Amino acid sequence: MQSTNQRAVVLASGGLDSTVTAAIAKQEGCDLFFLTIAYGQRHAVEVDRAKQVAAALGVTSHLVMNLDLHAIGGSALTTRAAVPKDRTGKERGQSIPVTYVPGRNLIFLSIAAAHAEVVGAPFIYFGANVLDYSGYPDCRPEFIHAFEAAVKEGTKAGLEGNPLHVKAPLLMLTKAEIIRRGIELHVPFNLTHSCYDPVGIQACGRCDSCLIRLEGFAKVGVVDPIAYAI
């Protein structure tokens, strides 16, 4: 019987951060169980990219779940509200943006915890980042620690002394540092998608996520291998 000691559920969006996170989990000896949530996001192309990344990394399993957060709304990513464009770093840091999806990471991590219990994975890898993030409260270490404590108390695994551990290896890295780490791990950046408001399958190059990504590649001195609409 295969050992489950090094199994890890990876929240895989198809984006740059989650892909680097997956590569780190693989380097650390984990068998990767990808979990991708199709939640009604306007940038649904990322789900297809997650499938491509899964194939490239040779994951053990890839579960794609449909979850209609569009029905709840409250975010520019799940409604027709305009996605902010061409904002400076200062503007991005002033308040929680309209691209915040209410409860998204709380919901995603809860599903990941359930999946981890079923497959016997002690780890959940999560690509949260607190330095270059766009002001999302559910990307902070305080949230991750609180979630980990709640899962310990609210799961069979936790009560039996096998608590799930949430690993966020990118938490305190800048985007440039994340990209450098990805280069070291030969991450297929060309397969990733980070844009909030794509033009067809091309990244817009103007939303907060595109700008943060482009700034990161510029600081590293490497050309971003994906196509942009501008």
Q: Could you please describe the fold and organization of this structure?
A:
With 230 residues, this protein is of the alpha/beta class. The chain has a single domain, classed as HUPs (Rossmann fold, 3-Layer(aba) Sandwich). Helix content is 37%, strand content 11%. Strands 3-2-1-4-5 form a five-stranded parallel β-sheet, with helices on both faces. Helix 2 links the parallel strand 2 and strand 3. Helix 1 crosses helix 7 and helix 7 crosses helix 8. The longest helix has 16 residues. It is globular and about 50 Å long.
Shape: globular
Shape-level CATH architecture: 3-Layer(aba) Sandwich
Proportion in β-strands: 5-15%
Strand order of the largest sheet: 3-2-1-4-5
Give unreliable regions as ranges: none
**Percent of residues in helices:** 25-40%
Going by CATH, the homologous superfamily would be HUPs
**Tally of individual domains:** 1
- CATH C-level class: Alpha Beta
> Any idea what the radius of gyration is?
17 Å
User: Sheet with the most strands?
Assistant: 5 strands, parallel
Q: Using DSSP, what is the number of strands?
A: 5
CATH topology tier name: Rossmann fold
Question: Secondary-structure element order, as H and E?
Answer: EHEHEHHEHHEHH
Query: Strand pairing plus helix content: what structural class?
Result: alpha/beta
Mean pLDDT: 93
Q: How many helices does DSSP assign?
A: 8
Quote the distance from N terminus to C terminus.
Answer: 52 Å
